[in-house]
Design a protein that fits this description.
The complex is a heterodimer of chains A (213) and B (453).
Chain A lengths: L11 H12 L15 H11 L22 E2 L2 E2 L9 E4 L15 E4 L1 H8 L17 H4 E4 L4 E4 L5 H13 L5 H19 L10 H8 L2
Antiparallel strand pairs in A: 1-2, 3-4, 5-6
Chain B lengths: L1 E10 L2 E7 L15 E6 L5 H14 L3 E7 L11 E5 L8 E6 L2 E4 L4 E4 L13 H18 L4 E4 L24 E3 L6 H31 L4 H11 L3 H14 L4 E3 L14 E3 L5 E2 L6 H15 L6 E5 L7 H14 L4 E6 L2 H4 L7 E7 L4 E5 L20 H8 L8 H19 L3 H17 L6
Parallel strand pairs in B: 3-15, 3-16, 9-10, 9-14, 14-15
Antiparallel strand pairs in B: 1-2, 1-6, 4-5, 6-7, 7-8, 11-12, 12-13, 16-17
Helix pairs in contact in B: 3-4, 5-6, 10-11
The chains are: A alpha+beta (213), B alpha/beta (453).
């Protein structure tokens, strides 16, 4: 949900392979998930640019030390079985068939969101977190009471409706996510209230929006 | 007799699977076998397999012989020098630890222990004769003090044709140590009640005949005499109705008919409607009512001291309010028994302390089933972080049954709309518009039961 800058490439071998398809104007090799040699390189590079968080919910999916640049050797991630949670998502499912390995269309996300919520639903790019126009604070508001994200109330009704649909499709307010976010944030917010200087390592946007008040 | 643990080395989906079925540290019954246990988990995780294993092992209790063989000729994995043995093949795929007085034993492995210390077997070559006699005594006591080792209620119990056939009313269980409603019927239990009722009715008939004869020669008030007799006599149906069945079936708008004028009308238990006092034919009773009668009657009529009672899916055909009370109800009917339940119901699960719940989960990495633990570090009451008795039903569904959503996904959408509407009201300066938006807010909030957080 935080803006994601995907320009930093550490898995060079994958990226060169992916760019070759475009240069040759070829459709991509069939996406076959973890069987592909580049799978873990894609995943770890995504986690690196996503700061170890789910791209949509900001739930933490791995420990920070796994994302240190020294883990990449000659453009490949050096551990084939790192301890991570989550799954690779094709943001726009329509692109999966012919551009299944497209870097721009990948995000690494919470498993529940991928399997139980998002699926192959048509998407609106308004909440794609790596676009130039994306600004989370202008698009979303956080309701401290319900722990739900809602479209920013300054936006017009039509835009709010588009954002509302995407919040639902990306699982940002999926019950299990809301419960986990609420449990985490209530604790941190209580610490903040008592001036105990809470340390945050996930749900940054929600915490920041709550802290405004 | 109670079960204090289960060990499965390799059977179906279980590998190196151990269940401690005793009260944890810090509990007033610390170390004693649990009074009741509830297996929960997705279909296929092995809840019924565990119930069946208990059943299978309990059957073998009947065939224990008092031979003692050197460990290497009995069965493997035993720590004692000498081992309990059986006439029949006692080896089992699962090891059930039975607990009786201060002793624990496992028939499948042949292990025996005093005060839970499996390493310090009471058996050794020098004292074998004394120990043999001791063990004979223990098992004799176990058999004498336990009418029924196990009573089993399967989930697909056949409720039809469970009652007495008038032509063969006094049938008894051939094997009363194992009452398994997979194979057996309620008939012998109803036969016992039936006999008591018939005896009572003959007693009443005889009293009335005598009364009539007396009235011919004496000046007596017949009505008063009958009332006096009724007060001093014991209609077996009155206790059965008042203690056993009415507390539950009253909730179904029924009560047990205790006034039975004709002997030929008691081939099944009779219930009448609380609405119009009319008898409801047994075959017309709801499945839930029949299930209550069928499960409660044996617990009330049989001697259940030291018994193990297995109930697969106790929630079947029962409305949530009955589910909420059924576990306590069964336990009140058989207070000295140990109960094992398997359930998919959060309402049933809420009747248990956290250490009484065994949640089974698939571990896809290890390709086996594991127990989800509700405590951290030491198994101590203070270290439990989930207690279903403290949770609302929806929280039990999400925290205990791992349901990822709290309700229909439409609800989340409507909650978002409500929040958006709230922000609109806050920003609106025109009072009339504000009031109009609030009416919408009220309506939506009401649909959400004002659960807006």
């Amino acid at each position: 949900m935080r803006k994601i800058d995907k320009t930093k490439i550490l898995s060079h071998q994958y990226k060169e392979w992916e760019e070759e398809f475009a240069k040759r104007q070829q459709i991509h090799e069939e996406y076959n998930s973890s069987h592909n040699n580049h799978y873990i390189d894609v995943v770890m590079n995504l986690l690196h640019v996503q700061k170890g968080l789910c791209a949509y919910t900001e739930r933490r999916l791995c420990k920070p030390d796994l994302l240190d640049e020294k883990n990449w050797i000659s453009g490949k991630y050096n551990n084939r079985h790192p301890e991570i949670l989550g799954q690779l998502d094709h943001f726009d499912p329509k692109l999966k068939k012919e551009s299944g390995w497209l870097w721009d269309n990948f995000f690494f996300i919470d498993t529940d969101i991928n399997t139980k919520v998002k699926g192959k639903k048509e998407v609106d790019y308004i909440l794609k977190p790596d676009t130039n126009e994306y600004e989370v604070n202008k698009l979303l508001e956080y309701d401290r009471e319900s722990h739900l994200f809602v479209p920013h109330s300054d936006l017009d009704d039509k835009t709010q409706a588009r954002i509302k649909n995407m919040i639902l499709k990306l699982g940002i307010n999926f019950d299990a996510v809301v419960d986990a976010r609420k449990e985490y944030l209530e604790d941190k917010l209580a610490q903040k209230r008592f001036r105990l200087d809470p340390k945050i390592n996930q749900y940054y946007s929600a915490f920041s929006m709550c802290s405004k008040f | 007799m109670k079960i204090s643990g289960i060990q499965i080395n390799d059977f179906q989906q279980f590998k190196d699977f151990t269940l401690d079925l005793t009260y944890p540290k810090g509990h007033e019954k610390e170390g004693l076998p649990l009074d009741k246990v509830c297996f929960i988990g997705q279909s296929g995780t092995g809840k019924t397999t565990l119930l069946n294993s208990i059943m299978e092992s309990s059957r073998k209790l009947k065939n224990v012989s008092f031979q003692f063989l050197p460990a290497n000729t009995a069965s493997s994995n035993q720590k004692s020098d000498y081992s309990l043995h059986s006439k029949n093949n006692i080896k089992s795929r699962t090891e059930i630890h039975f607990s009786f007085e201060n002793y624990e034993f496992s028939l499948s492995s042949g292990k025996f222990a005093e005060n839970k210390n499996w390493d310090l077997s009471i058996f050794n070559q020098n004292a074998i004769e004394n120990n043999e006699e001791k063990l004979r005594t223990i098992f004799r006591e176990l058999h004498n003090s336990t009418d029924h080792f196990v009573i089993n209620y399967p989930s697909d119990i056949n409720i039809k044709h469970q009652f007495v056939n008038r032509k063969t009313p006094l049938k008894k269980y051939e094997d009363k140590k194992i009452i398994d409603f997979n194979e057996q019927k309620l008939t012998p239990i109803w036969s016992k009640v039936y006999k008591e009722i018939v005896d009572f009715q003959y007693e009443e008939a005889n009293f009335r005949i005598d009364l009539t004869k007396r009235a011919e020669v004496e000046n007596i008030n017949i009505k008063e005499e009958i009332e006096k007799w009724k007060k001093g006599s014991k209609n077996p149906l009155i206790n059965l109705a008042g203690i056993c069945l009415n507390p539950i079936i009253n909730k179904f708008g029924l009560e047990i008919e205790t006034d039975l004028p004709r002997i030929q009308n008691i081939d099944v238990i009779r219930a009448k409607s609380l609405l119009n006092s009319k008898i409801v034919p047994f075959e017309s009773l709801s499945t839930g009512t029949k299930q209550i009668i069928l499960t409660a009657l044996p617990l009330y009529e049989l001697k259940t001291e030291n018994s193990i009672i297995l109930v697969d899916e106790p929630e079947n055909s029962l409305y949530p309010d009955i589910q909420q009370m059924i576990i306590e109800y069964y336990q009140a009917l058989a207070p000295s028994a140990q109960f094992f339940y398997a359930t998919h119901s959060p309402v049933i699960a809420s009747s248990f302390e956290p250490w009484e719940i065994v949640e089974l989960k698939f571990d896809y990495d290890k390709k086996q089933v594991l127990q989800e633990l509700y405590f951290k570090e030491e198994r101590h009451v203070a270290n439990y972080f989930i207690n279903p008795q403290f949770l609302r039903w929806d929280s039990i569904l999400t925290k205990v049954f791992d349901l990822a959503i709290r309700g229909n996904e439409k609800r989340t959408e409507k909650l978002m709309e409500l929040t958006m509407l709230g922000k609109k009201i806050e920003k609106e300066k025109d009072k009339d518009k504000k009031t109009s938006f609030y009416k919408e807010y009220q309506k939506l909030a009401s649909l959400l039961d004002w659960e807006t957080k």
